Structure prediction request, 292 residues.
Amino acid sequence: MGDTPHPQGLRHPLRRLIRFEAYGILFLLAGLFGALLATTAFDSTLVILLIFIAASSAFGFVINDISDIALDSRAQKPRNPLADGSLSCRTAKVISALLLAISVGCMALLPPHLLGLELAVLFVFITYSFWIEVKNIAVLDLIYHALFPALYGWLGFVLFHPLDLTGIVYVILLGIFGAVGELGNEIRDLEKDRLERKNTVVVIGERPAFILTISLLVAALVIIAVYALLQPGFLWLLPFVPFGAFLVQPVVLAMHDHEYRARFVDSINFRAIILAAAMLLVYGFCRMNGWC
Prediction:
C-alpha cells in the first residue's frame, strides 16, 4: 500500500487518506467481475458485498497511513495527510473505527459461508500495518498485496457459486496483479524506504524488481491467453491480451526514465481500471445475450 503522489492542494485531506480512486475502484471491479463470472442472477447481497469491499479496503488504507506517519513525515511533499498535518491522527482513528463498523455490519448481513474470507480480509489489512507489520517483510509484502484483490474476487465468486477452475484461475490472476502493484509502489518509493524497511525491492534491488514485475505481467497474459483458448466460452478474452502491452509499457519506461518512476504506478492503475471495466462490460454483454 504505497504512497501515490498527487498535487496536495487539489485534493481534500479525507480523499487523500482513503484514496479510493487509486485502489478501491479496482477492488470493487474485482468483486463485481468475480460475481459476474459466477452468475447473472444477482440479488441484494451483491450490493452489500460491494459496500463491504469499499469500507474494508478504505479501513485498510486509513490504518496504513496511521502506521506510516513517522516515515511519511520525512518526505518533502507527503501524500499522507496525517504526515503533513492537514488531518489529525485522532480524526483518522475515528474514521477507521467507522469504516470497521460498516465492514462488520456488512459481514453480519452476508451469507455465513463468506465469514472466513471476510475475516481474512480484515486480518491481512490489520497485520499489514500493525502487529506483524508485513509491509516491512520481504516476500510477505508481495503475498499480502496479492491477497488484497484476490480475496475480494474470491468473495464475489463464491457469493453465488462454489469455487471451480474458472474461479481459481481468476483468483490467481488477481493475486499476480496485486503483487505487481506492490512491486511498482516499492520501486517508486525505494529511496524513501531503503533505510527504514526491508521490503522485497529493498532486498532484491531495483533492476531485479523491474524484471520480476514485467515477468509477472507476461505470465498473467499467458495464463489469460491459454485459458481463453482451452476453456469453452472464454474466447472473448483473446482480443484483450494484446492490450496487456499497455500495462507493461509504463514499467519498461520507468525502468529507463528515473523521473517517470514517480508517476508510473498511477499510469498502470489508471490503465488497469480502464481495461478491467472494458472486460467487465464485454463479458456482461456476452452473458446477457447467451454468447458465453
